[in-house]
């Protein structure tokens, strides 16, 4: 029972870390969009304004595409759903390329969610 409690604690921590990490990524995308669009609007050159708005929008879409699946996976994991565990493992694998924080998060995700107790908890759907 102590191992299940420990695995349960790690599942919760992984879920919260993914939600926070990917929420911050989403926030960065929104801030970049707002910043670049504002600079574009303040620029005297219409061509520069258009380019900055396009770049800001592209970056915002890029960061949204990166962050939303991590937030959804973290929420599913908090609910102890098996699909949330699998999705978070996939997101953790992709996070390995984001050195150093994503790498640490990815390694911890693998370690916590690949344990037999974590698999059993998520398959049972209990929390």
Name the descriptors.
elongated; 5 helices; mainly alpha
Structure in words:
Helix 1 runs antiparallel to helix 4. The model has no long low-confidence stretch (mean pLDDT 92). The two termini are 14 Å apart. The protein is mainly alpha-helical and 127 residues long. 29% of the residues are buried. It is built from 5 helices and no strands. Helices cover 87% and strands 0% of the residues. The chain has one domain.
Radius of gyration: 18 Å
Strand content: under 5%
* DSSP helix fraction: over 70%
Average the pLDDT over all residues and give the rounded result.
92
Low-confidence stretches: none
Q: How many domains would you count in the coordinates?
A: 1
Structural class: mainly alpha
Record the SSE blueprint.
Elements: H1 2-42, H2 46-78, H3 82-95, H4 101-113, H5 116-124
Helix pairs in contact: 1-2, 1-4, 2-3, 3-4
């Amino acid at each position: 029972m102590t191992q299940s409690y420990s695995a349960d604690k790690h599942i919760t921590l992984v879920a919260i870390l993914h939600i926070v990490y990917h929420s911050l990524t989403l926030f960065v995308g929104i801030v970049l969009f707002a910043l670049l669009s504002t600079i574009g609007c303040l620029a005297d050159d219409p061509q520069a304004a258009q380019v900055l708005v396009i770049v800001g929008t592209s970056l915002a879409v890029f960061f949204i595409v990166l962050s939303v699946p991590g937030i959804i996976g973290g929420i599913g994991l908090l609910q102890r759903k098996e699909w949330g565990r699998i999705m978070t493992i996939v997101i953790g694998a992709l996070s390995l390329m984001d050195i150093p924080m994503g790498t640490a998060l990815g390694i911890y995700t693998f370690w916590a969610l690949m344990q037999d107790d974590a698999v059993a908890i998520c398959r049972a759907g209990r929390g």
